[in-house]
Design brief:
The protein is mainly β. The chain has 1 helix and 8 strands. A hairpin with a 2-residue loop joins β6 and β7. The longest helix has 8 residues.
């Protein structure tokens, strides 16, 4: 299931995992068709261009009322953005909301928390909304 009810989250200093917002393993590195089977029909937004990522015409789709954005690079879900996450506290435990085991972040400041090369993902980031909650999350599977 894609999104879980966002209520009843654990307190930010509680070491227990957060309720998952996404089963990341069912999205990352999967084709458009496979992602749509998991989360429902998406809406094509544009062809994304990024020379550094090796992408000249990579399709960007949104799902679930723009709660999920996926850029497909080489036919696979590579850049995944999760929106509307203000119910989650901005801290290291956000990693568990992605269905991943807890690990202290590799980098953090008041604006962003980052994990590098963790659980097969190139980079996982979460951004502060300015009120101590998560604004959005960005997952890079392989590309820069």
């Amino acid at each position: 299931m894609f999104l879980y009810v966002l209520g009843n989250l654990f307190a930010s200093n509680d070491p227990k995992p957060l309720k998952p917002v996404l089963a990341l393993e069912h999205i990352a590195n999967h084709s458009i068709e496979e992602v749509q089977k998991e989360v429902g029909k998406g809406e094509f937004k544009l062809n994304w261009k990024d020379k550094k990522a090796g992408c000249l015409t990579c399709p960007k789709y949104t799902y679930k009322d723009d709660s999920l954005e996926v850029i497909y690079i080489d036919g696979k879900a590579d850049r995944i953005t999760l929106n509307h996450l203000q119910a989650y506290p901005f801290n290291d435990y956000f990693i568990t909301a992605l269905g991943l085991p807890y690990k202290e972040a590799d980098f953090k400041n008041e604006s962003v928390i980052r994990w590098y090369n963790y659980q097969g993902f190139k980079e996982i980031m979460t951004f502060n909304d300015g009120n101590g909650q998560v604004h959005y999350g960005l997952i890079k599977t392989h590309a820069d």
